[in-house]
Amino acid sequence: MLDPDADLGRRAWLPCPRCCNDGCSTCAAGTSCNLHWRYLLANEARLVFLQCPGCMHRWWHDTEFGVGDNQVNSNQLPDSPASPGQAA
Ligand SMILES: [Zn+2]
Ligand SMILES: [Zn+2]
Asked: Is 58:50 a contact under the CB 8 Å cutoff?
């Protein structure tokens, strides 16, 4: 059953974990294959919710990059400002 959020205008080219496109040279080349694509149903931070139009499987895919937050080296900031008791 196709998700009501499925929209041809929002597609993603990611392999389906159920019917992955092994052997397709277009997919292997990393180009936008016009046979093998997924509906992009939703996205939340670095996760995207996809549906495969081939087998109707739906799943969350981790894109492994954040929306802007990977560029900020927040963990390079000092833990705390220099405490008064510490020698400089
Ligand atoms: Zn599939
Ligand atoms: Zn393909």
From this structure: yes
